[in-house]
Amino acid sequence: MNKIRLGILGGGSDSLIGVVHRIASQMFDKFKIVGGVFNPNLEKNLDFAKKIDLPQNRIYKDFETLVEEEIRLPIDKRMQVISILTPNYLHYPMAKKLIQNGFNVICEKPLTTSHAEALELELLQKEKKCVFAVTYTYTGYPMVRQMKQMIADGVIGEIQKVDLQYYQGWINPIIHDIKKRSNTWRLNPEKSGISCCIGDIGTHAFDMLEYVSNLKVSKLLSDLNYLYQDNPMDVDGTILLRMSNGSKGLIRASQIATGEENNFTVAIYGKKGALKWEQENPNYLNYLSENKPFQIFKRGNPYNSNFSEDGVKIPAGHPEGIFDAMGNIYKGVAKAINNEKCFSGEYPKLSEGVRGMLFIEKAIASNNKGNIWVEL
Ligand SMILES: NC(=O)c1ccc[n+]([C@@H]2O[C@H](COP(=O)([O-])OP(=O)(O)OC[C@H]3O[C@@H](n4cnc5c(N)ncnc54)[C@H](O)[C@@H]3O)[C@@H](O)[C@H]2O)c1
Questions:
Q1: Which CATH superfamily is domain 4-137 in?
Q2: C-beta contacts of 56-60 below 8 A and 24+ residues apart
Q3: How far is the CA of 18 from the centre of ligand 1 (A)?
Q4: What is the pLDDT of residues 283-305, one digit of tens each?
Q5: Of all protein residues, whose CA lies closest to atom 6 belonging to ligand 1?
């Protein structure tokens, strides 16, 4: 079998992101799902495996058993890479055990629930030299990759203003109802970590900013909103930024922006022009300039970079979306596992997950200390 043997933790029939990973992993015929733990309830786990037509012999009751049983298998049968798609608090123990036992890992964001845990994983990975991806899904979109390339090529000149907005409204009908609130794991610090909104979606914006701009965030000041005094988790926030080149900007994230769905927009303004991209309209990249008319770059055209075009499967005009973006990340991971040459930035590395955790902790610290500037 030439395909990479993939195991999955979480992502069962009751999950949001599971189907995205399952479909993405199949897109370039590089992976075969061979087993996993899709649900903490063994019966539901086995039922789901049956539903997706997986043999039952590699469906395990928990991740510890998966590791124990898999390492007993001959190396050419054993799972080669395992995707972690569970609620956040399980990422660290699962990833740690997997790295220690020689598996490659694909892990959902946020990487862990603390920066210290993330640093520990980074040390372990350096020692064991495994492939480790953190699925900041949006970096897999061809027009995001085109944006990164155009900024690197100097098309918009020196960056002078950045503005990233990630607005959702799904917590609005939950936050005002104490019962619903307590049944949502993202609002439970034991399962989610120290942050809800910034940890869940602010972290996508942060990673995207550093990814496309090739700059680092050097300082931030955050103003978070919890809405109710007895709610321990932020559901909205505005974060002012200083970038490593001295430019200024902001990340604004909300899960109580009533009526919004997944409105993630990225705007980078340079001395010569600007580039803007919208997640709900991902096949287009808007280019603004003082001297030329407004231009729209479209996915799947030869004027785009090789990196952008490498992530395109069907000709221009046939819309691609989030499944395809995740598919491109899986493609990069497959290249890394097979020791093939990757484009720079083809899949988000563990170091990006570590930066993401630092950002979350600093955003919470800034807010808790009375909205002060903190260094990253
Ligand atoms: N990259 C993205 O754009 C994106 C989008 C959504 C979610 N996520 C991330 O994916 C992760 C999961 O989010 P979700 O929205 O799919 O959550 P979810 O609650 O919808 O699904 C979680 C899944 O994990 C399973 N699970 C729980 N405990 C388990 C255990 N001990 N062993 C095995 N399986 C277990 C549940 O049964 C369920 O199938 C989170 O870390 C989240 O931040 C990322």
A1: NAD(P)-binding Rossmann-like Domain (3.40.50.720)
A2: 58/7, 58/34, 59/35, 60/35, 60/36
A3: 7
A4: 999 999 998 999 999 999 999 99
A5: 17
